[in-house]
């Protein structure tokens, strides 16, 4: 098949979870003999040149060789959103980005794909995929977060029921849904939670499927709990990601129980650990996906205390792949993702008790390590691509 992919961020410009999935998807489809072409906005801060083919290493350890993925870059102010004033961002979302990107529509149609796959669309023109569909190209949209109902894609779990936000999301969802004009031929979500979130705001597909994101498990290895244990936090060093919860663990556990607390990432609270004066804390900064996964593999427990609605965090999948038990906050699709892994999930106050539960004996920890690695079977890349190609072929035939 000839498959077009439209996404608002793609390596080397984008390094978040959604863009990494878009890359893994493109590379995996290429490896399986399909023709793939990617369209993504230019990075105004200095990214890939328009039309330039970027050679991208596989950074998720899938068994792929290097591909020269044709990433067609088109003009967009998407990469400048963080530097805009609130009023300028509102103008961008409501007027500038709501219609179709005519050049992208023409380029995709000229390439004559069998299927169009879209990821996050902010910056791509929300009317672009339905305009391409109107020309006879079947359209499959993949959900990653709540961006269709919340422009930033982020919402604190404790703010979901606040009336002003609910009214805003209802208006915003209706406004963007009208830009689609017609629903995707297939709407795909990694979790049932995210699919149901969009259903309540009227986003539907002619076909709807749950397809968990892929992760390669790598080689089998024997693991055992170390004493004292090593904890790792991966993400933005901010309040909304729950970084203060991680910092509190230094006070909650003595050195005999926890020997090191490693933080991978950057953010506004990056200096908070130094203020505590606890030498067990180690700040690694922002690392490559490969080195981030190495830190997860070396830890005894991954802490995921996010306070925002998460869909299916990549760090949870990487912990599964490495057999690293997780203690996580119950937000969004986290419970669904970790279901059957034996790993504790609860609110922020439960993080310390969840750690205690895993550390109560080496046998308890090892059982969780085995169970979470087995859970990774649900995210097997071959299973993922078999299902994805089947979906593409099905909507193409219909």
UniProtKB/TrEMBL annotation:
InterPro entries: Glyco_trans_4-like_N, Glycosyltransferase_grp1. Pfam families: Glyco_trans_1_4 (PF13692), Glyco_trans_4_4 (PF13579). Residues 16-213 form the Glycosyltransferase subfamily 4-like N-terminal domain. Residues 38-57 are annotated as: Disordered. GO terms for molecular function: glycosyltransferase activity. It comes from the Bacteria. This is Glycosyltransferase. The lineage of its organism: Bacteria, Katanobacteria.
């Amino acid at each position: 098949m000839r498959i077009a992919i439209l996404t608002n961020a793609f390596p080397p410009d984008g390094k978040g979870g959604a863009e990494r999935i878009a890359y893994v998807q493109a590379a995996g489809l290429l490896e399986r003999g399909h023709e793939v072409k990617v369209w993504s906005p230019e990075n105004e801060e200095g990214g890939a040149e328009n039309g330039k083919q970027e050679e991208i290493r596989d950074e998720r350890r899938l068994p792929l060789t290097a591909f020269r993925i044709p990433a067609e870059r088109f003009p967009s102010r998407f990469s400048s959103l963080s530097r805009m004033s609130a009023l300028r961002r509102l103008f961008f979302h409501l007027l500038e980005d709501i219609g179709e990107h005519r050049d992208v529509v023409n380029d995709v149609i000229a390439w004559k794909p069998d299927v169009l796959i879209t990821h996050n669309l902010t910056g791509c023109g929300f009317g672009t995929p339905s305009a391409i569909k109107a020309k006879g190209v079947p359209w499959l949209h993949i959900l990653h977060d709540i961006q269709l109902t919340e422009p930033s894609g982020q919402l604190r779990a404790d703010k979901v029921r606040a009336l002003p936000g609910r009214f805003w999301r209802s208006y915003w969802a209706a406004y963007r849904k009208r830009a689609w004009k017609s629903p995707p031929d297939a709407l795909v979500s990694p979790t049932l939670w995210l699919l149901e979130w969009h259903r309540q705001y009227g986003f539907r597909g002619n076909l709807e499927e749950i397809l968990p994101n892929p992760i390669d498990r790598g080689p089998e290895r024997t693991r055992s709990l170390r004493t004292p244990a090593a904890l790792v936090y991966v993400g933005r060093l901010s309040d909304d990601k729950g970084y203060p919860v991680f910092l509190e663990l230094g006070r909650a556990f003595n050195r005999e129980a926890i020997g090191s607390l490693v933080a991978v990432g950057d953010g506004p609270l990056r200096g908070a650990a130094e203020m505590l004066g606890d030498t067990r804390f180690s700040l690694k900064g922002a690392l490559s996906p490969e080195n981030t996964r190495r830190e997860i593999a070396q830890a005894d427990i991954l802490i995921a205390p996010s306070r925002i609605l998460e869909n299916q965090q990549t760090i949870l999948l990487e912990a599964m792949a490495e057999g690293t038990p997780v203690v996580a906050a119950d937000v969004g699709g986290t419970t669904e993702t970790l279901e059957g892994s034996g790993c504790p999930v609860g609110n922020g106050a439960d993080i310390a008790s969840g750690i205690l539960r895993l550390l109560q004996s080496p046998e308890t920890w090892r059982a969780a390590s085995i169970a979470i690695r087995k859970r990774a079977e649900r995210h097997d890349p071959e299973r993922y691509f078999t299902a994805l190609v089947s979906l593409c072929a099905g909507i193409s035939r219909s």
